[in-house]
Amino acid sequence: MTILLLIVLLCLPIAVLKNSSGAASGGAEPMEVVSYTVAPGDTLWSYAERVTPEGEDVSETVEELKQLNHLQTSSLQVGQRIVVPIR
């Protein structure tokens, strides 16, 4: 009985962490995306300006693109492929 209790107590934090990972990533419904290949002269900001609907905040699009593509910085390389949400 003591071993079973110990196993449950050891596994509980793992289960909690596993279930909370969906919430950390937003837990939002699936999103349609397309792939874009970075061209010479592209910056994350310039690309975000092109795809941000008029009247919306470009900086929010930049942050969204960074999150979707697991980018630590806004730097892009020519030929790099990024995923972009379809709006």
TrEMBL record:
It holds the Pfam family LysM. The keyword Signal applies. Residues 34-84 form the LysM domain. Residues 1-23 form the signal peptide. Keywords: Signal. The keyword Secreted does not apply. Gene3D superfamilies: LysM domain. InterPro entries: LysM, LysM_dom_sf. This is Peptidoglycan-binding LysM domain. It comes from Bifidobacterium vansinderenii. The lineage of its organism: Bacteria, Bacillati, Actinomycetota, Actinomycetes, Bifidobacteriales.
